[in-house]
Amino acid sequence: MNLDLNSVKSLVQMNLIYLFHVIFVGPLLVAAGLKCKSGKNATLSSILLFLGLGVIVYHMYKLYKYNPNDIVVLGGVVVLGLGLVMLVGKYVL
What is the pLDDT of residues 23-45, one digit of tens each? Predict the structure, then answer.
């Protein structure tokens, strides 16, 4: 595989996008789903919760697909993402 500067730059940018979604977007969607758990918003709550979990799982898969040898980094991202979900959920509820 021949890597030039532009391909390395785009790879780093894609990894940053995936990390941003795992660390911020997914946990915020989960927190929003946990926040609107009232009776009339039960459907919206479920949609946001599963959408947030789907965003986290999908972007973690994309990170793994493009970085299969960095399992320690990916494990850290998993722990950090799940920790943020629990932390945000604790203070939102």
Answer: 889 888 888 888 887 667 788 88
Contact 86, 31 (CB under 8 A): no
Residue 9 CA to residue 14 CA, distance in Å, equals 9
Q: Which residues contact 11 (CB under 8 A, 6 or more apart)?
A: 66
pLDDT in tens, 45-58: 888 888 988 998 88
In order of 36, 60, 63, 67, 93, the CA distances from 46 in angstroms are 9, 21, 26, 31, 15
Task: Report yes or no: 52 and 27 within 8 Å, Cβ to Cβ.
Answer: yes
Could you give the 3-state DSSP secondary structure of residue 8? helix
